[in-house]
Write a structure and sequence with these properties.
By secondary structure, the protein is an alpha/beta fold. The chain contains 21 helices and 16 strands. Bound molecules: thiamine diphosphate (TPP).
Length: 507
């Protein structure tokens, strides 16, 4: 925006506000680097509360913490000036003065990083002191010589008791009135499965990018202090760092939400897949995420991972299968068979029994849950249960569906699907993902490639963005619940429904 302003020769201010957590991302530094180099008038306000969602991590965070406790910048500058005033005058002395000034500043003020990047540093200022903030912002506004960095200290949750007491929990809150959970959260099952894996294999390292709580991994940090790592909000680095570990025979389990892994796509491609490294990607919040809204929808991961050679992709039908899939993924990666991803949804499981020990699942093999001769419903991951329910509804209307839990989007269970295609050439695919490039697409590609003639109905998210809203409502809206799947079948093959309509008694 500032560049556009300058190209047009206009005069206005551009203010970028960033959190200290967000500042751990590489892109933030790419921006600072560019603006600092151009000496462009931009005001960057750092809202520094020492917290990401959880306590912030990293060397920059440590540097910012040092600023909190250091001599205030203005005071330090004053001390430096006083020292210099006692130096003799003259040209040589002027150069010495400049050098001494810079060295002393560097010694006294830890945040010279921003100054070295070409910014003039204002602060730190108490963000809860309105007058102080107004004052420093006015100075930043009127400053004419290049970019300005305004460092504001705040307290996360300030002024609201519950949030001050537990600022991690209160980072974000859901709508009130949510139903009491009757089954475990997928996230909790995931964390237990990771614990099981960390215990079973010392070569395993689990990595999160600033989501220790969100991924459920928080308790694992104290249990495995060396092998559970938070790298900050930098998914790209998380992936490439894990790639480095994998080159040394370590088995990384990288837990990143589906939507955030998008940030690390090129790293997944170049630093993992191209290098033939073996890896576990655990993609939480895959599918419709509900209250988190448009930016957090996990609707693209199949499409962006499926084309990468060597990748294996799985999705569990319930929480017990999630645990088996992580176990399977770990074995696969530990045996150096390439990168493997497991996507699982936000929210609670189905309350199924979790067996005593995890099982290793055969790669690329589906599970048939129900047999019927009229059509085949193949679901991937979370919608499997809805597909089963739809099949039962349809059965009451006299229409018999086979229901397949696909388990794998790559490799597909080609043998089974082609056998079904030959027997029952009416397929419905169901996934909580965009239809373009997703699981249904994979099935369509397979059928086309093998010359199988099948009438194919692909259910998923159409070509539009999905906004904030309860998962249940969106599933209904897109016809991804049992009712929607049954309706899609009736709509696509009305002749099947008619064929089974109860005969009317004449007369
Ligand atoms: C790319 C990406 N990774 C992770 C997250 C999850 N996340 C949301 S807010 C947040 C913490 C942000 O901390 P900070 O920038 O310091 O802002 P604050 O909430 O403290 O104001 C994280 C990690 C995200 N939104 N985007």
């Amino acid at each position: 925006m500032a560049l556009a302003r300058d190209l047009r020769g206009e005069e206005w201010n551009v203010v970028a506000v960033i959190g200290d957590g967000a500042l751990t991302a590489g892109m933030a530094f790419e921006g600072l680097n560019n603006v600092g180099h151009d000496h462009r008038r931009v005001i960057v306000v750092l809202n520094d509360n020492g917290m990401s969602i959880a306590p912030n991590v990293g060397a920059v965070s440590r540097m910012l913490e040092a600023v909190r406790t250091a001599t205030p910048y203005r005071g330090a500058k004053h001390v430096v000036r006083q020292v210099l005033e006692h130096m003799p005058a003259g040209e040589l002395a002027e150069e010495a003065r400049r050098r001494i000034f810079n060295s002393l500043k560097a010694l006294l003020i830890p945040n010279l990083l921003f100054e070295q990047l070409g910014f003039t540093y204002f602060g730190p200022v108490d963000g809860h002191d309105l007058f102080a903030v107004e004052n420093v912002l006015a100075k930043a506004r009127d400053f004419r010589d290049g970019p300005v960095f305004v460092h504001v200290h705040t307290q996360k949750g300030h002024g609201y008791g519950p949030a001050e007491d537990d600022n991690v929990k209160w980072h974000g809150v859901s709508a009130t009135g949510a139903a009491k959970a009757t089954a475990p959260q997928y996230t909790a099952v995931f964390a237990d499965a990771v614990r099981e894996i960390l215990k079973s294999d010392e070569r395993t390292v689990a990595i999160t990018a600033a989501m220790p709580g969100g991924t459920g991994m928080l308790p694992l940090f104290s249990e495995f202090p060396q092998r559970v790592i938070d790298v900050g909000i930098c998914e790209q680095h998380a992936v490439t760092m894990a790639a480095g570990l994998a080159t040394q025979g370590i088995v990384p389990v990288v837990a990143i939400y589906s939507t955030f892994l998008q940030r690390g796509f090129d790293q997944v491609l170049h630093d993992v897949a191209v290098q033939d490294l073996s890896f576990v990607f655990a993609m939480d919040r895959a599918g419709i995420v509900g209250d988190d809204g448009r930016t957090h929808q996990g609707l693209y991961d199949i499409a962006y991972l499926r084309p990468l050679p060597g990748f294996t992709l799985m999705a569990p039908k319930d929480e017990a299968e999630l645990r088996d899939m992580l176990w399977t993924a770990h074995h696969h990666a530990a045996a150096q068979r390439g990168p493997i991803g497991v996507r699982f949804p936000r929210g609670t499981g189905f309350g199924v029994t979790i067996p005593a020990a995890p099982r290793e699942l055969p790669i690329g093999v589906s599970e048939t849950l129900r047999e019927g001769d009229d059509l085949v419903i193949i679901a991937y991951g979370q919608p499997v249960n809805a597909a089963l329910e739809a099949a039962e509804t349809l059965a009451r209307e006299g229409l018999q569906a086979t229901v397949v839990n696909a388990r794998f989007a790559k490799p597909l269970d080609a043998e089974r699907l082609l056998a079904l295609a030959a027997r029952t050439p009416r397929f419905v695919t169901v996934e909580e993902h965009v239809v373009a490039g997703g699981f249904g697409s994979a099935v369509a590609e397979l059928l086309h490639e093998r010359g199988a003639r099948v009438e194919l109905e692909m259910l998923g998210i159409p070509d539009e963005h999905v906004d904030h809203g309860a998962q249940k409502l969106w599933r209904r809206h897109y016809g991804l619940d049992a009712e929607g799947i049954a309706a899609a079948v009736r709509g696509r093959w009305p002749q099947l429904v008619r064929a089974h309509e109860p005969e009317r008694t004449a007369g």
